[in-house]
Amino acid sequence: MALFAFLRRREWPTVLGYALFVTLLAAGYYYNVTFVQLGLLDLGTRLVGMSEAQVSAWMAALALLTLAVAVLTGMTMDRRGWSKNLLVKFRLLFGVVALQFLLTLVAPAVRTVPAFGAWILLGSVALGVGIPVTFGMTIDFVAVADRGYVAAAITALAYFAANVYPLEWRVEAFSAVMVAAMLPGLVALGVVASGRVGPANRLVARLADQHERRAFGVGRFCRPARVPTRSFAFWGPVVLMFGVFFVDSLGFLRIVETPTFVQSAWQSPDFGDHLFLGAVHVLGALVGGVLYTNFDRNWLFLWVFGLFSLTHLFYTTDVRMAAWLPGLARGASSPLNSAVYAVAVSFYTTLNFALWPDLSTPETVGTHTAIGVGLAGWLATFLSTAVALYFETAEVTLLSHLNVVNALALALFTALVASLYLRRLLAAARSGGGGR
Amino acid sequence: MADPVEVLPLLVVAVLLMTASGQQVEQMEVVFDGDREVASVSDALVVGGGTVTVPADESVSGTVYVVGGDFRVAGEVDGDVTQLAGNVSVGDGGAISGELRTIAGDAAVADGATVGARSTVEFVQRERSTAEAVGFLALQALVLALAGGALARRRPALLENVADSVVHHSVVSGVVGAFTGATALALFVFMAFTLILIPVSFFGLAVGLFTLAYAYVVYGYLVGRALPIDRPDLASAVGSAVVVVAADLLGRVPLVGTAVQGLLVVTGLGAVLVTYYGFREFEPALADLEE
To answer: What are the transmembrane regions (chain B) (predicted)?
Structure first.
């Protein structure tokens, strides 16, 4: 790890940058997977009184708006040179966190549909600006060689906390914890972003030029040749990651609505189950970090689709068994299902954190991370929500729903295997192999 | 209620027995819970849990498999009864015209009951004698020593590539070995439950064992290099034999020994996999990115 070299050379600002980045991203992701994904559903259904379908539609709108704002912000950052200006990024981030703090504080008081809509609009702006800003900070803080491990640390921290901290899936509980946790962070960010406090200023100044160092700025996949925005090298991973998010969200949306599945995992009353899931998430992230650092990205996608195929094979087997042999079906599903799911999720989240900055240079990091995270992550979520809603309206059974997800994962897995083989075949043919 | 973890494998065995005897699996009736009295059986009845009774005044035709719960015969069963687990009791006046085969579980036949034939399959679990254990270990050592010696003589590069990954890329080898090993094992075990994929499952497990043996040979090659033997093939053969014996001794040490053994196994497995069974040298993707 490059971090060990920085430690040996006593480059403390750089080391501090690593810690700051992991904290910022882990906190942001924790906020996203708990408050935005779960808290809003509770807010909409219980406090505002909307149906689940209506809330899902609003959340799809949130995803779409977030994508638009993220791409607009990312492109603006690159065009105006903000992507290379750490102080500007800190100021934008302060604005994002301040807005999110206010939104989190007032969330439990939202009672009407227009208020909920306004909340969604402002939430989208905060998230949309936050994506390219936080992901864009990777070039300032994390050496390219360490991005897999740092992404693993962020994923592990966020998911461990989300699983182990015994939060009720109620917006009041989420809000109280988030407000308390965000306040010190907001103050610290305010100090750094103000540019008026000496030590904080010196730290920012020391870190601000790091993207010009060989080890930091230019991402792994941009060496030796940079990856242009209009290239297959960039859009290939976007499509693949879109597939990953789509498969994950489509399956998870149905799984969280199935009491047999969630009550033995994410909503289990037994703390041991939560601890187990948290530990499995950490393990999955670490595995993801090591593999990201040592293998080509196509192999990583192959592993992700393979893991999702395995996950849904487990879930569908459970459902089939219950349908065929009802006497065997008990109240809870196998803990193996949620464990394999947790490994798959941690694995691809690690990949998602490291991939987009590694497909970028300081000149393109805003646009690339915005398109990558916004399009592959948020748009996929929006579309899978829409498809899940359609399935619900069409009264598609649980088994059929999960079968579709499994088939998608298997199809993507097979397509990737085929394309990898085809690529090598074409390369061999071009090199003239096989001639006499 | 029946426990799926206990009942499912026995249910699979019952289905296999049914298939072997030419019965139609689709016709089978499975009972998992509650108290039931049966008056007829279409082809085969599987008792997986609860209590199933053939009443005193009834005669049922068909084959019965007991994999859990209680099966009580007060009337007549015109067919065979195979007991894989659970309890079977044939009361006074009760009758089984075919064979009552007890593979496991408790069977109680009253003095006044009639059973066509009765057999009990005895599974005697006994400790291997020292001579047998040593003999088996010696056989393993001999086979791997021969493999190690032959590979070191004919294709030393295969062993060298894997050994290089074990020594210089132990973390990634360990992670790949543990990750692939765990997921592949789960997948192959799950495949066995589909019945159709049982051959694929066995094939996968056989490949796993072959890979494990390969990893042991590579450790033997590494140990052989440290031995004061000039001939590389002989050193590798001796090293492989030493590794087999050392791994066996290590496995006998509780906790720490088992953990170290597990660590060595997953690292070896991973090293074999990342080098494509030694055909390619492993190069980390980020090898040249250090500042």
So the answer is: 133-152, 172-196, 202-222, 259-279
